[in-house]
C-alpha cells in the first residue's frame, strides 16, 4: 500500500485553503474571465476546471491570466474526450475514458496535453474518468489501460502533478486493485459519491472508507439509484441534498478519515441557469453542514 499512498501534497497542504473549503466543478469553453467571475459570484475562490474534449488548449495562457487577475485557484484540471456519451451503462462502457481501444492513443495524447495546460495555469493535479476498468487484471484491456495510466502519471510527474481517477464506473475494490497495479506515487482518486449511486456500484460511504488514504480531492454531487427493473439504466443526478448520498454522513466520513481538502460542488444539469442555481444551493448546504460539524 505504501507505494501508492498519496504523498503530502493534497491541495489543502500546498495552497491557502480553509479546512474543507467549498469550491466548484466548472467548465471551460467560454471567455475565461467571465466564467471565473460567474463562479466567484457564487462566493467561492477555488475549483476544478473541466476541459471539453474539443477545446483548443492554446487558451491556457488566457486562463492563467484570468485566474491570476481574479485571484481564483484551480486545483484540478479535468480531461474529457470527444465521442463520450453518458446515455446509459452500455454506452458509457463503449465510449468513455481509456477503455475503448480505437480512441486510446488519441486520448492518451489529449490527456498529456491537458497536463501541459494544467502546468501553464499552475494547477497541481489533473483528473479524468478512465472509464469502466475491467476487473480481470489479466485481460488485454486492463493491461493496456494500466500501461497507459502509468505513462500519463509519468508525464504528469514531469510537471510535479498528481493524476486523480474519478470514481464510480467500477466498484471501489476494483478501482483500488487497479490503482495498486499501476503503482505510481502520484496516482490518486477524485472521489465522487454520487457516481457510485448513479452506476449502482456500491454504497459511497463504504467505498470512501476503502479508498480513503488515496483520496486526493472530492466532488460533492448527489443522485438516486438506477431503477431496479432497468439493468442498463443509470440513476438520476439530483441537486445536492436531494439525492441518496446523505451529505452529512459523507462529510462526517471525510473528517473521520482525516480529509481536510476542498469540496467541489458538482451539478450536471444541462440548463446553465438551473446549474448555477443548484450550485448556489449546494454551496449553501455545505456552509450549514460545516457550521455544525467543524
Ligand atoms: Mg464527478
Q: What's the short story on this structure?
A:
By secondary structure, the chain is α/β, with parallel strands linked by helices. The protein has one domain: TIM Barrel (Alpha-Beta Barrel).
Number of domains: 1
User: What is the count of β-strands?
Assistant: 10
For the record, give the distance between the C-alpha atoms at the N and C termini, rounded to a whole number: 30 Å
Question: H/E series, N to C?
Answer: HEHEHEHHEHEHEHHEEEHEH
> By helix and strand content, what is the structural category?
alpha/beta
Average pLDDT works out at 93
Computed CA radius of gyration, to the nearest angstrom: 18 Å
Largest sheet: 8 strands, parallel, barrel
Give me the side-by-side strand order of the main sheet: 1-2-3-4-5-6-7-10
CATH topology: TIM Barrel
Low-pLDDT runs of 5+ residues are 1-10
Write the CATH architecture name. Alpha-Beta Barrel
Description of the molecule:
It is built from 11 helices and 10 strands. It is α/β, with parallel strands linked by helices and 294 residues long. The protein has a single domain (5-293), classed as Alpha-Beta Barrel (TIM Barrel), CATH 3.20.20.150. The chain has an 8-stranded parallel barrel with strand order 1-2-3-4-5-6-7-10, surrounded by 4 helices. A two-stranded antiparallel sheet has the order 8-9. Helix 2 runs parallel beside helix 3. It is globular. The model is unreliable at 1-10 (pLDDT under 50). Magnesium ion (MG) binds next to loops.
